[in-house]
């Protein structure tokens, strides 16, 4: 059959289950956008290329497939560069396609060319692989290689350059092949290694599952649930893998921010790590709580990238393969002889519930009368609908969330590894687009983070996404205020550059974008406001003035809750 190059690209992506495109169209891509819309794709055009990449990243996390982000030549793809780096560090399989001038223009020795930079070399270190479609008949091989690379080993972004001289060329090609015809799909682990892992699990006194970010991204929750129930064990979340799995919420505990979780870690004698890099936020599995208790514990590591085995800590049994295949391999080996539940599991569940209840019952009064950040988290997350997608952004507000979170959301989108502010609103859009706008989205953020991409409220309104955005407003870069305080002592500097206007009203900005806006001054009123906002069916922004002193930790050089634990992420305590 004869098709245009841009149509063939869409066909190849459709074979992988991709049905959305993010980006701002220009002459290089208008044909692709028209064709995508006719084929039933969701076409999302934001107001900044950087936001487009972040939307695509969230789509990939929620959809379990790669995502596609396009950018115009020159300034468009340059503005998207930060998103490429973010996708690389966050291990997100985003395929970035950049327009480029026709090669005759690019290869000339000229000055003063319009909308032009040498793009491919510029982004080489920000992606796993880069290529250019120089000739129309390369389309299949380049797109398929991009799909292989972004999903193999440690997932990550790729970049494809799309020169304007090949866009409208014709191709005579057969129907697109299924993925299994050109890449390894969900490889399993070596049988002997699976047998060794099962022997360790069956003979363990206190086995645990350590689950990370990739469990959610591969949509593998129910496979993990089956294994956890067969093992009769608790589940420890990494800080990047904070999505709770339906059916085992009560036996799941956050590493470092729950005393129960930390007790479990010290008692564990076999750790089955799944979907995690075993990185700094879990102290590489060797520091902090891992140094206590049963220090001779054995490690089973389910990991797709063979090069990752043993990098951060010794591994006793490596299970190299896709967790979507390897976890069922383990479950199959335990079905005939499931373990009984750990004797202390019921106590752990009870004590963690008591922890959450005690947090909610503390005194949240503040000298200023503004809302305490802990109360902001509690009231917002208590009001979160059970099936909601939770998106997080911010500095201090996220640290407070680790401690005070009252809900157990099944999908959580936030920026763990790169630590990039401003991802939240684009993430919320991309996640809701991937979900088809069916489930409610609660986006909790700070004012500083929200301002990065606030123009994307128009996209929220345009798609009428079921989103409630709760903004904690302290009129400052709260985390950086704390840095000044800890560096110089509170009140010893003017803290230059971290305080800004007190006149910004996010509820009014929301109404200016066609959304609803609410202003809530009392923490005890926040839950009802969120309920009303979701019930209205309209995207809503809720402005909540929070106490800036509480937010950055207090005038007496105190810290935000669990801040000292959070700091241990950085090179085991060294910046």
UniProtKB/TrEMBL annotation:
Its required cofactor(s), as named, are: thiamine diphosphate
Signal peptide boundaries: none
Thiamine pyrophosphate enzyme N-terminal TPP-binding domain: residues covered: 4-111
- Could you tell me which residue ranges the Thiamine pyrophosphate enzyme central domain spans? 194-330
Which keywords does this chain's UniProt record carry? Answer: Thiamine pyrophosphate
One BP term from GO:
L-valine biosynthetic process
Q: Which GO terms describe its cellular component?
A: acetolactate synthase complex
Q: Which Gene3D superfamilies match?
A: 3.40.50.970, TPP-binding domain (3.40.50.1220)
The Thiamine pyrophosphate enzyme TPP-binding domain is annotated at 393-544
The protein's GO terms of the molecular function aspect are:
acetolactate synthase activity; flavin adenine dinucleotide binding; magnesium ion binding; thiamine pyrophosphate binding
- Sorted alphabetically, which SUPFAM superfamilies does this protein's record hold? DHS-like NAD/FAD-binding domain (SSF52467), Thiamin diphosphate-binding fold (THDP-binding) (SSF52518)
Tree of life domain: Bacteria
Belongs to which family? Belongs to the TPP enzyme family.
Q: What is this protein called?
A: Thiamine pyrophosphate-binding protein
Q: Which organism's genome codes for this protein?
A: Pseudomaricurvus hydrocarbonicus
């Amino acid at each position: 059959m004869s098709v245009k190059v841009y149509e063939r690209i869409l066909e190849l992506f459709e074979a992988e289950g991709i049905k959305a495109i993010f980006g701002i169209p220009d002459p290089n891509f208008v044909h692709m956008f028209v064709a995508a819309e006719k084929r039933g794709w969701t076409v999302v055009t934001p107001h900044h290329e950087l936001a487009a990449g972040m939307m695509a990243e969230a789509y990939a996390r929620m959809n379990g497939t790669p995502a596609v982000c396009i950018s115009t030549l020159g300034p468009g793809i340059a503005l998207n560069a930060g998103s490429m780096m973010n996708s690389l560090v966050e291990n997100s399989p985003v395929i970035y396609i950049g327009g480029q001038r026709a090669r005759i223009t690019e290869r000339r020795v000229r000055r003063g060319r319009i909308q032009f930079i040498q793009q491919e070399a510029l982004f080489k270190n920000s992606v796993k692989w880069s290529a250019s479609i120089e000739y129309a008949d390369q389309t299949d091989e380049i797109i398929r290689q991009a799909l292989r690379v972004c999903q193999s080993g440690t997932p990550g972004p790729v970049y494809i350059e799309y020169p304007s001289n090949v866009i409208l060329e014709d191709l005579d090609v057969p129907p697109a092949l299924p993925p299994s015809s050109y890449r390894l799909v969900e490889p399993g682990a070596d049988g002997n290694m699976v047998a060794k892992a099962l022997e360790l699990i069956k003979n363990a006194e206190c086995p645990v599952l350590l689950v990370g970010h990739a469990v959610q991204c591969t949509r593998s929750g129910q496979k993990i649930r089956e294994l956890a129930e067969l093992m009769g064990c608790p589940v420890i979340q990494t800080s990047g893998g904070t999505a709770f799995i339906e059916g085992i919420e009560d036996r799941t505990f956050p590493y470092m921010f729950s005393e129960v979780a930390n007790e479990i870690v010290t008692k564990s004698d076999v750790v089955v790590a799944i979907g995690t890099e075993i990185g700094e936020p879990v102290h590489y599995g060797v520091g902090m709580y891992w140094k206590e208790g049963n220090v001779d514990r054995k490690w089973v590591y389910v990991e797709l990238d063979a090069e990752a085995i043993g990098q951060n800590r010794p591994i006793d049994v490596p299970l190299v393969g896709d967790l979507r295949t390897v976890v069922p391999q383990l479950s199959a080996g335990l079905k005939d002889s499931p373990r009984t539940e750990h004797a202390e599991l019921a106590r752990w569940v009870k004590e963690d519930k008591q922890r959450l209840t005690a947090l909610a019952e503390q005194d949240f009064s503040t000298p200023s009368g503004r809302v305490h950040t802990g109360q902001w988290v509690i009231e917002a997350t208590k009001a979160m609908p059970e099936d909601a997608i939770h998106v997080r952004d911010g500095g201090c507000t996220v640290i407070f969330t680790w401690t005070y979170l009252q809900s157990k959301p099944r999908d959580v989108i936030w920026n763990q590894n790169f630590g990039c502010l401003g991802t939240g609103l684009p993430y919320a859009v991309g996640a809701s687009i991937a979900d088809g706008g069916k489930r409610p989205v609660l986006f909790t953020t700070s004012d500083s983070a929200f301002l990065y991409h606030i123009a994307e409220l128009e996209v929220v309104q345009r798609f009428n996404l079921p989103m409630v955005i709760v903004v904690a407003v302290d009129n400052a870069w709260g985390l950086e205020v704390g840095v000044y305080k800890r560096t110089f002592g509170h009140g010893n500097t003017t803290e230059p550059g971290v305080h800004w206007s007190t006149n910004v009203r996010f509820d009014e900005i929301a109404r200016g974008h066609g959304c609803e806006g609410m202003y809530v001054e009392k923490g005890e009123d926040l839950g009802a406001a969120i309920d009303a906002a979701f019930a209205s069916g309209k995207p809503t922004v809720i402005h909540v003035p929070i106490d800036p002193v509480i937010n950055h930790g207090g005038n007496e050089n105190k810290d935000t809750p669990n801040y000292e634990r959070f700091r241990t992420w950085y090179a085991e305590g060294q910046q």
